[in-house]
Task: structure prediction
Amino acid sequence: MKELTVKETAKRLLEAGDAYILIHRSPDGDCIGSGYALATALRSMGKRAKVLCNDAIPERYNFMLPKEDTADDFEPDIIISVDVADEKLFGESLLEKYAGKTDLCIDHHISNTGYAKELCLDGKAAAACQVVYEILKEMGTCITRKIAICLYTGIATDTGCFMYDNVSPRTLRIAAEIMEQHKDIPYAIINRNMFIVKSMGRMKLDKILIEQLESYIDGKCMLVCITKELMEKYSIDESELEGIAGFPLQVEGVQVGIVLKEREDNVFRISMRSADNVNVSEICQKFGGGGHAKAAGCCIESTAEEAKKMLVDAVMKGMQK
Ligand SMILES: [Mn+2]
Result:
């Protein structure tokens, strides 16, 4: 694996031909934004570019997608991944085809495993979209309205609407540059749709989640476990679960919030969030996962009770550091 600077990455992309752009499973605003911003930029240069994802893009992000997206396959000259810290996060269908084949990865996760041949990593960037913005500027790409919408949304969603401590002066300057260039984008409406508006189903789910909250370590660790049984009982749709990782952390006094989602029988996907000092990336790495210091994830195969115990134990150790 070779690390590239923004400048070198820009050069690499200018020289490359048609591209496949891979984003992570359970796609979020940042990977969708960085993937489509890059694809749109490459297309404007006459290259073919296609964004590939293991899962369908949730409807609420439809406004970011190009109106006519390429459906046709082609032989890519370069395979790029954006916002994907670990190959495992491609999800099964992409992993099957592209494991070990990523030529260039553009990312902002300090935990990036270095699976790509070349890596442009800025661990201080708030979002992959922030890195893509720098690269596009370096390439001399015109930040069109469509690209601006993608980049703004990616940065807004990965920073909790400019609230998390990954926000730097640079993050705000990029957002400001985008806003200056495109005064007609409805930023407040995007923010509202990304952060305030919930479906009625989700509203009802929040009520169920409140009832399911479990408190550990004198209320410093709050956990919610969403089993398949619970999903079926309340007919909860998978799409309603988006963004619930921060839910337990809303409770006063909680330092670490954990959400367990049962994917298959006794297979749990874990999201962990930290309010302040505890490094949840380190904790999740113990279970083969990773992420950021304040937002990380992993997967555990065991019963719910065992998974909870292992996680709470690991959090307790993490708090003593
Ligand atoms: Mn991201």
Q: What stands out?
A: The pocket of manganese (II) ion is lined by residues 30, 83, 108, 127-128, 158 (CB under 6 Å).
